[in-house]
Amino acid sequence: QFLYFIGCRLVTGREEGKIKPTKKYLMAAKDFLYGENDNRSVSSGSAFGGGKTISMFAGICLLVNNITGPGVPSIPNMFAESGWLFPTLTCIVVCILSSVSAGMYCEAMRMIPGNEHFKGRIEYTSIVKHYFGDRMFKLSQMGLNGALQSLNIISVIQSVQVMDQAISAIFGKSCGVNLTPFSLSNSNGTMGASTDIWSCMDANGLADGNPWGCHCVLSIGLIICVFITIPIGRWNLDDNMVIQVGAFILTIMCWCTWFIASCWSTNYSSGDWKIPAATDGSESYSSQAGVLGTILFNFGFVTTIPSWVNEKQPQVNINHSVWFSTWLCNGIFFWLGISGCMAFQQFLAGPATNECKGIDGVVGSCGQNILAVFTSPELMGYYIPDVKDNSVANFIVQLSVYLFPVAAVLSSIPVFSIVVKYNCIENGWHPNLAFLWGVVFPWVISVPLLYQPGALNQFITYTSLIFVSFTDFIVPWMLYYKLHKGYVDMPVDYEEEEDPLLSGGTEQESPQGIHVHWAISPKFGLSSRTKAMTALVLTVFMAAFATGGVVTSILTSATNSWDCANVDFEVG
Q1: Is the per-residue pLDDT at 198 higher than 70?
Q2: What gap in Å lies between CA 376 and CA 347, rounded to an integer?
């Protein structure tokens, strides 16, 4: 009431009781008492982070790289395991929900005192702390670090594996230091590389088994990826934009190459290209359990949104950038996922079952993604012999596969690391400690997981269902509910639509050169009560959906075998 009185008398010059107690006057009173930039909530002159320089195009490149990054090559696996119907519907729903979630988070972020039009700087966990206090702040810290570090670990695993394959293609083998030497056997006896401390193997010729399976190996591919990525983690987010734009262009070139190569698959001539609408789980390689986790993993970009908003140019429209990026990525998933599944579905291991239909007469393990086809001479000879036998076409396909981890996967690792680092520094961590935790730690924890059978798909499924669903969907919706629940609880004579601050006004009313952000446009005429209830329903829905996904995935994976060398699996 004291703040309200000051807002009425000293800021507006009007008597109490003759104006409606809208949030505009309460915020004006707070600015009068504590200054326009209230540093108790928002940092406007931060000692970390970059300037507000990221353009709309660079921002779209950043968002698309984050969404597609390490997940695109494994999207065909999901369609092969589950059919096309449920993955398609889930992609569309999650695309819409993630876009709405990002918009709601940004609106809650903009409404924090001192951060109107995002003029200050505030990161993910501090936004949660402002609305929910210390307890939820600690929970959000766990969720944010769990989500982003999981995304980093997944990116590391795929980057290193593909880099080792690239080295093998160029030099014949990739070598490394085996920190846990123990014996693995195949039909020919003990594999020597499994017991040697220093060993070399052809990462593209694993039909007879992987001697590094279940071992902790410091490979040359790992060392190269570390030296490429960790120095970039020292940069600010806006410094990374040149890399993001370049990676975006190179990634599109890689995707186009894969699509063209898949069009030459022998599946089309043999009639084996058809994808069922849905699988019923009657076969060991069919399940619906991996769909939600795989798609949530790819759309787990909301945690990076606050850092991007803090450094974007003021005139950049958040909704236009986010919705364009998510629908573009959705189209990419359908384009590459369905075409890749039609071309190579017998070989692709499902994200939940880790099994595939198999190929008659071909011995070897199932592939974790379509890159395994392009890096195997035997599989290329079976699926796309015309491409394999053409030296130019084969070179272009191989080049695209080995550029991909550098162009797309490695470009996403520094972004997630920088966001973790930003949040740690904002919450009092020493910059060097934040660097070690955000940038170095994911590489350390990834070493034992690099060559575990099925680790990549299983890690994607569980971390997405547990961490990504919480930090990228549930938390933003809870923030939006809290924000608009506060408006509903204001005095009964309050009408939100009469206040241009809360209704958004019009474009003409916004400050010159600055776009005013709203998750749901005022043109729809929705009340705060409706918005709050919408966010609450979405929260309950996602919590139930994620819980069901975790249970289903546990039941499915409980029946999977664990074969370190993958040598006992005979396809067909």
Answers
A1: yes
A2: 12
